[in-house]
């Protein structure tokens, strides 16, 4: 079975499962005789909900120090688990999370999370700003892999450890991990060794298919964008970040000299400030 047939088979399984869940939900609604309230809602009308989307080799806990600051400043925050199963799948999932939120949204993405929010925000009028943190910012039709090769300096290709995986329906794919001896240098060079050892052990792999899937639509054409450049990034070259943010017409770009790819972890204060500036600029 070729790659396209495998993807179609997997998508059919997801769609079927979703249809079953939708039917069950409809029965519950009918029984209750009332429409369900949005899953995520808040009472502070002055503050939008901030949605933080992580990228590959990470999880939502990486945003913890940013979350703490935003919550202190009165913002409702959600840091959903990005499935890391491919652009179309992940964007659709995050888009569904966004639809569950009542009121305005500030949507931020790190690394591959930038690709996801670029797609997921399209068509949702509640998304008021896109904030890119050392992120991919693809245009319609672009492949993430092509963007990564646009400028020199990324250590990711040499750090990749491909691991085959199988699914319940018998299809196979390839998960991309970062090698233990390359993780800190390529991904998080400005964090303590003790921290990066824990991150390396708990890293969540990114499916190789994600590099081969084009972006279907680019939300930054219609939604104001903001960007943070990690000045010492060895995953996504700083030159690529600058190019992307300029192309997107970012309203504000902040550069953090010496910051590794995980600038949102090593510089949570600067990251939080940019998110809050995006809110203020789009009121």
Layout of secondary structure:
Layout: H1 3-32, E1 49-53, H2 64-72, E2 77-78, H3 87-99, E3 105-110, H4 112-120, E4 127-133, H5 144-148, H6 156-159, E5 160-166, E6 172-178, H7 183-187, H8 193-202, E7 206-207, E8 225-230, H9 238-247, E9 252-256, H10 263-266, H11 268-281
Helix pairs in contact: 2-11, 3-4
Description:
Mean pLDDT is 88; it is low at 1-39. With 283 residues, the chain is α/β, with parallel strands linked by helices. Strands 2-1-3-4-8-9 form a 6-stranded parallel sheet, sandwiched between helices. It has a 3-stranded antiparallel sheet with strand order 5-6-7. α2 (64-72) crosses α11 and α3 (87-99) packs across α4. The chain has a single domain, classed as Alpha/Beta hydrolase fold, catalytic domain (Rossmann fold). Helices cover 40% and strands 17% of the residues. The protein is globular.
Describe this structure in a few short sentences.
This protein is α/β, with parallel strands linked by helices and 283 residues long. The protein contains 11 helices and 9 strands. It has helices at 3-32, 64-72, 87-99, 112-120, 144-148, 156-159, 183-187, 193-202, 238-247, 263-266, 268-281; strands at 49-53, 77-78, 105-110, 127-133, 160-166, 172-178, 206-207, 225-230, 252-256.
């Amino acid at each position: 079975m070729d790659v396209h047939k495998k993807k179609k088979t997997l998508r059919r399984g997801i769609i079927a499962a979703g249809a079953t869940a939708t039917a069950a939900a409809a029965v519950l609604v009918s029984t209750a005789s009332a429409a369900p309230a949005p899953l995520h809602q808040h009472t502070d009308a002055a503050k939008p909900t901030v949605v933080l989307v992580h990228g590959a080799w990470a999880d939502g806990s990486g945003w913890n120090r940013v979350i703490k600051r935003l919550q202190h400043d009165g913002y409702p925050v959600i840091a959903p688990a990005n499935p890391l199963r491919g652009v179309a799948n992940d964007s659709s999932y995050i888009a569904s999370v966004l639809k569950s939120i009542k009121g305005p949204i500030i949507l931020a993405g790190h690394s591959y999370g930038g690709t996801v929010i670029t797609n997921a925000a399209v068509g949702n009028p509640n998304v008021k700003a896109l904030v890119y943190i050392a992120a991919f910012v693809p245009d319609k039709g672009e492949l993430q892999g092509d963007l990564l090769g646009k400028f020199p300096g990324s250590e990711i290709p040499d750090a990749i450890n491909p691991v085959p995986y199988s699914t319940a329906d018998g299809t196979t794919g390839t998960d991309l991990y970062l090698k233990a001896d390359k993780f800190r240098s390529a991904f998080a060079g400005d964090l303590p060794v003790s921290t990066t050892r824990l991150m390396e052990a708990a890293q969540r792999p990114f499916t190789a298919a994600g590099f081969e899937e084009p972006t279907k639509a680019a939300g930054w054409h219609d939604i104001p964008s903001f960007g943070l450049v990690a000045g010492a990034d060895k995953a996504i070259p700083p030159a690529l970040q600058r190019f992307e943010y300029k192309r997107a017409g970012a309203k504000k770009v902040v550069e953090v000299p010496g910051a590794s790819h995980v600038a949102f972890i090593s510089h949570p204060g600067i990251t939080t400030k940019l998110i809050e500036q995006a809110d203020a600029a789009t009121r």
